[in-house]
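Example S7 (structure tokens).
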């Protein structure tokens, strides 16, 4: 049987290596297309890159996985390609990364923090990234060696992300608000969220889950912002169960 197409959208400042363990499992059933954002230089470029890839490859049907910033992109893509998407899986999801200035949406980060990060990236990019990477993990995940392994892999791939891309990603997180899009998305959706996520709080994922028409959410205890990296086997089991419950990969 021909494998379905799966598009994976990674998060901010983290490339393909964190996905390797889960991709090894997913490739049993899917042809995987991985999208990172290193060449994106403006806030509009994230969705444009995915849309261009779908057009260039002539992809007619696909499933999509989005993580963190990638979850925002995935939601936007889902709203635009609704009839072509079989299912959506969102890790550490949010529909709005920053708090609403009106005060009605208090989930997420204060905009001033992101503004300071953008300003500081010009002079202290390594410091900003180091702080972000530390916050990906819980104390138990650090004790389990995941943070140390993550840093070693980062050195191995020798990533030096352009400041223009890093700034564009933060600007995207500031500007993007997809709360009103959620109600129009009616495709099977699975949300997997770490219960101790310090980047996208679990309440952000719960908000998305409550607003989508056809979704379920699984919260993993003592798990941070990268559950597919630190709890790979659990995530794989959750995905398999969700797929079976929703009628298989090819419905």
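Recovered sequence:
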């Amino acid at each position: 049987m021909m494998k379905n197409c799966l598009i994976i959208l990674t998060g901010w400042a983290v490339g393909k290596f964190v996905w390797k363990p889960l991709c090894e499992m997913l490739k049993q059933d899917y042809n995987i297309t991985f999208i990172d954002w290193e060449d994106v230089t403006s806030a509009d470029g994230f969705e444009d890159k995915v849309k261009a890839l779908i057009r260039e490859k002539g992809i007619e049907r696909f499933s999509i996985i989005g993580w963190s910033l990638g979850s925002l992109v995935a939601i936007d893509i889902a709203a635009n390609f609704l009839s072509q998407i079989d299912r959506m899986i969102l890790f550490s999801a949010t529909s709005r990364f920053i708090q609403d200035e009106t005060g009605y949406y208090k989930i997420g980060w204060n905009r001033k923090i992101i503004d300071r990060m953008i300003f500081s990236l010009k002079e202290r990019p390594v410091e900003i990234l180091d702080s972000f990477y530390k916050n990906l993990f819980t104390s138990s995940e650090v004790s389990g060696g995941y943070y140390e392994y993550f840093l070693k892999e980062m050195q191995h791939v020798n990533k030096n992300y352009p400041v223009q891309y890093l700034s564009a990603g933060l600007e995207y997180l500031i500007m993007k608000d997809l709360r009103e899009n959620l109600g129009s998305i009616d495709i099977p959706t699975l949300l997997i969220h770490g219960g101790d996520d310090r980047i996208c709080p679990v309440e952000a994922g719960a908000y998305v889950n409550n607003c989508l028409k056809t979704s379920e959410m699984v919260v993993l205890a003592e798990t941070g912002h990268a559950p597919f990296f630190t709890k790979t086997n659990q995530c794989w089991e959750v995905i398999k169960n969700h797929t079976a419950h929703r009628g298989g990969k090819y419905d």
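Notes on this example. The longest strand covers residues 85-91.
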